[in-house]
Amino acid sequence: MATKFLKEANFSEAVFHAAVEFRGTEFRHDAGLLPGPIFSLVQFMVPETAIFYRTYLGQALFYNCDVSRLTFSSVGWRIRSNGKRQLFEECVSLEDFYDLWDDTDERDYSLIAETHQQLKKNYDNRQDYWTAGDFHYGEMEMKRLHSPRKNKAVRWLHRNLGLVAWYRYASEYGESYVRPLLALLVVLALFTFLFPLPGLIFTKSDTNTIPPLFSILNYGDLPAYIHAYKGPGWIATLAFFGHSLMTALSVAGFQKELIYQPAYPWGRALALLELLLTSALIALFLLALRRQFRR
After folding, report:
1. Mean pLDDT score, 120-141
2. Closest CA to 91 of 138, 43, 40
3. What is the pLDDT confidence band of residue 257, given thresholds at 50, 70 and 90?
4. pLDDT tier at 93, thresholds 50, 70, 90
5. How confident is the model at residue 210 (pLDDT cuts 50, 70, 90)?
6. Could you give the CA distance from residue 135 to residue 87 in angstroms, rounded to a whole number?
7. Contact 98, 130 (CB under 8 A)
8. Distances from the Cα of 132 to the Cαs of 125, 127, 196, 205, in angstroms?
9. Looking at residue 261, what DSSP letter applies?
10. C-alpha span between 226 and 168 (Å, rounded)
11. Which residues pair with 15 in a beta bridge?
12. What mean pLDDT is reported for the chain?
């Protein structure tokens, strides 16, 4: 019969000199913020023989314990609101765990990031890339939350507007290929509507290109464009924005010869900004795609 630890089971600072197995062991599993098994500062002298199998570790503490070579098989972890696995160190009540405080009187996110990194390495070595991706997300989330600054406003800026924060918004730290793809579509749509503000200038004059009704497209010319178009007004409007969309797509595709060139200087500035944004989003999309389907 499997061993049951329905309350706190403190293995802190224990040294396991030989093989140890937690097979089907029942640890605390409730909605509270109190820990079940505590493995902080535990030493596994033969880590490859330490096995956790079919047990719940959603309320286990592993900080300051090297978990990079332990075996975790069919174990349950705490789950974030976005469905990814989470360490209990991120939410455990700190009242009795002063080791989890940092110098800014907050949770020591850098310490928790170390455990995430070790678990990511553990699952990566076993080629379980999806589970490793969850702990990669956790590691990056801890880096986003960690700040050595004591000023609350500076910490807020780091967590919500820093580079790591934007990495999260754009692709969930490289774990989502849907987010950068959707963001790319939004950027293309945005610049489709922005380019007519400074104006688009028709520059293609070879014999294979049909001359447009207007050599310059901007919102001020839109009524005249609709009036001069031989057809329904809504088709003229679609054609107007169609030219702008093709310019946005051409800029994102690194096309040098544009049929409609954004007007200098603000149009060129918009084109440069679009190029930077779309290049970054395409790179994030490819990175996330590789992480999701690598073998």
Report:
1. 94
2. 138
3. confident
4. confident
5. low
6. 9
7. no
8. 9, 8, 46, 54
9. E
10. 43
11. 43
12. 91
Closest among 234, 235, 257, 243 to 200, alpha carbons compared: 243
Q: Which structure tokens are listed for 273?
A: 């900004």
Cβ count near 135 (within 10 Å): 24
Amino acid at 208: N
259 neighbors 204 (Cβ within 8 angstroms): yes
Please state whether the predicted TM-score (pTM) of the whole model is above 0.90. no
pLDDT at 112: 96
Supply 238's token pair.
């679609």
User: Which token pair is 62?
Assistant: 């592993």
Mean pLDDT confidence for 24-38: 92
Which tokens sit at 103?
A: 């110098």
Specify the DSSP element, H or E, that contains 202: strand 200-202
Q: What is the 3-state secondary structure (H, E, C) of 94-154?
A: HHHCHHHECCCCCECHHHHHHHHHHHHHHHHHCCCHHHHHHHHHHHHHHHHHCCCCCCHHH
